[in-house]
Amino acid sequence: MQTELSEAAIAALLERFYGEVRRDPELGPVFGRAISDADWPGHMARIADFWSSVLLKTGRYQGNPFAVHTRVEGISPALFGRWLQLFDESCRAIFVPPLAEAVHARAVLIGDSLQAGLFFRPPLAAAKRTEPGSPSDP
């Protein structure tokens, strides 16, 4: 069990988690369509950069998670619950309880943010209609 955050601990977490994701009957097909077997090493390197930036504040990740996820065929709000469940299980298998809970809590925040950005944004036109001073402003 890992007792502190490190690059090696993050790598162990991601290896376990994405192994589970790829075997999962709900998530596996979505990830399989989005990432070919040949592209997995590159994906894992980007994900390691992302989590290193999130958990260790390294600043290595320079991508745009929203843009990437908008192109994923089959992604849905329902899948985020399964993603978080597997992530929680992986955290608990790799880290001591307080650290597992802290890492999982960050994943919950990230998942909530992604979901809000991908699925729950009102259309731009609706937002403009409610701006003060717009023609439909009461």
Explain the overall architecture.
The chain has 138 residues and is mostly helical. It has one domain: Orthogonal Bundle (Globin-like), CATH 1.10.490.10. It contains seven helices and no strands. Helix 1 packs across helix 3, helix 1 packs across helix 5 (77-94) and helix 5 (77-94) runs antiparallel to helix 6 (97-119). It is globular and about 35 Å long. The termini are far apart. Residues 125-131 and 133-138 have low confidence and may be disordered.
What descriptive keywords fit this protein?
mainly alpha; disordered C terminus; 69% helix; 138 residues; Globin-like
- Gap from first CA to last CA: 59 Å
- CATH names the topology as Globin-like
Number of domains: 1
Q: Write the CATH architecture name.
A: Orthogonal Bundle
Uncertain regions: pLDDT < 50 for 5+ in a row?
A: 125-131, 133-138
- What is the strand tally? 0
The H-and-E topology, N to C, reads as: HHHHHHH
Count of helical stretches = 7
- Mean pLDDT comes to 87
Element layout with pairings:
Blueprint: H1 7-23, H2 27-34, H3 40-56, H4 65-70, H5 77-94, H6 97-119, H7 124-129
Helix pairs in contact: 1-2, 1-3, 1-5, 5-6
Short description:
The chain is an all-alpha fold and 138 residues long. The protein has seven helices and no strands.
